[in-house]
Amino acid sequence: MKSLGRPGPRPAAPADRPLAMPLARHRRRRRFSTLTLRILAPNVLALALLVGGIFYLDQYRDGLLDAKIAALQTQAEVIAGALGESALTGEVEDRRLDREIAARIIRRLVVPTGTRARLYDRRGGMLADSRELIAAGRHVQLRYLPPADAGDRLLAWFHRAYDWLLPRGQGFPPYRERPGRGLEDFPELTTALGGEVGGAIRAVPGANLILGVAVPVQPLRQVVGALLLSADDSDIEDGVRNARLAILQATALALTATVLLSIFLAGTIAGPVRRLAAAADRVRRWRGRRARIPDLGQRHDEIGDLSVALHEMTEALYARLDAIEVFAADVAHEIKNPLTSLRSALESIRRTDDIQQKARLLAVMEEDVQRLDRLISDISNASRVDAELARADSEPVDLAELLRTLVQVQQSRTTCEGIGLELQLADEGLAVVEGVPGRLGQVVDNLVGNARSFSPPGTTIRLALDLADGMARLRIDDDGRGIPAGREEAIFQRFYSQRPDDEAFGRHSGLGLSICRQIVEAHGGTVEAENRQSPDGEILGARFTVRLPLR
């Protein structure tokens, strides 16, 4: 039981259409995975920013230098106050510092601090130097150093690289110390002898910074000398250097872990993607056997979803190729029938001189030509359905409004044949689906035309639309002879045709119901056929049920 699909003109092939698909470019295999590099680069960049942050420890070091200078100033003021109270000699009008007493005070107060103190009189002459005082009477002691190990070499290499990348002393005046000279080498002494506190930071080339603070020694506002207290920044530099080394060590460990984890992560992504890409390439270059897509669905992640999607897409592709192959075979078979009839009629015309016989043979040939034309038009229409559905933009379709329009078009045709057409809408305005209106209308048009061809005059074709289980359900009932038992699915096959006895042979190609199922399934729905029966088992007619998902 098949209806004739509405024939359409065959599209002309463009003149510039290529005769064959161009060969795809061969993909060059990469030695290194760019995906791995893209995963690794952001992680390494973050660590590089962390390493670059160690250069900002200079601000931390500047703060420590300021704090140490303030501590030196406090210490110098304490020692200067002790000297001003206990190391003076002479009359009140001519007070001066006593060298011996001042030396004892300096030795007692400076030794625990590890700083260097130099005392100058009011004229700038040096009275005492804590370095000479502390070193007096000391003995030289020998101590054997432990042998250097590999770690010491690595640490030495770090210090050399550190000193080369971050040289010390830039921006500070050089430190110079000449015996017997004071005011010329240390301008802050002049400031201190003037009654103010002076300070300076100087750099020893290739060594540490020297911090110096000069304070006046002045009992009762009378400046009798100046105390210069100085210290290097070795403790500060060692702390900053050790902090930077610790950051680099932590960064090296983090970098190692990041690289390993990034390679592992990239391997779990890039490796399966490469396998899927190679499988897809094998599918593209398919020659006679089916390529398999790796099954990675057990991963339960996006790669697994991609594997499942590619597998389903490949199976759909192979199913489509099989369908095309079967379709081509069916087309060849269906076209051969009228061609065989034409050949036989043509040969018979050549052998007969009977005018009436020739007329009958010409009539047969004319019917075969019309059948070929109708068959080719229906085949063209069927082959365009998938392509048009893939290119067309879907839109909301109100099935109730669509059915009302189609019934109005069909009523004039069915009335002329003595057949009624009835439409029942249970949920008007709610049966909205997503699809292509023209193709959905073609489904209804084919099904109504099929029912009309099997309906006796004086009967009615009934269309009923309702909603059930989230689907729009359309039922088309006729009062014909029904569907032969066991052929409910066969009638949807291509070129299957079982027409009424009074219908001329070849009038229908047997593609109408096949096109209906093709369109409905492309919209995510189903179409089924069955017989309506009375309680005693009598066939009352055929019923076609179309189900489409609601929008």
What does this structure look like?
The chain has 551 residues and is of the alpha+beta class. Among the domains are: 184 residues, 2-Layer Sandwich (Beta-Lactamase), CATH 3.30.450; 160 residues, Histidine kinase-like ATPase, C-terminal domain (Heat Shock Protein 90), CATH 3.30.565. It contains 12 helices and 14 strands. A 5-stranded antiparallel sheet has the order 4-3-7-6-5, sandwiched between helices. Helix 11 runs antiparallel to helix 12. The longest helix is centred in the middle third of the chain and has 51 residues. The radius of gyration is 52 Å and the shape is rod-shaped. It starts with 33 loop residues before the first helix and ends with a strand. The N terminus is likely disordered.
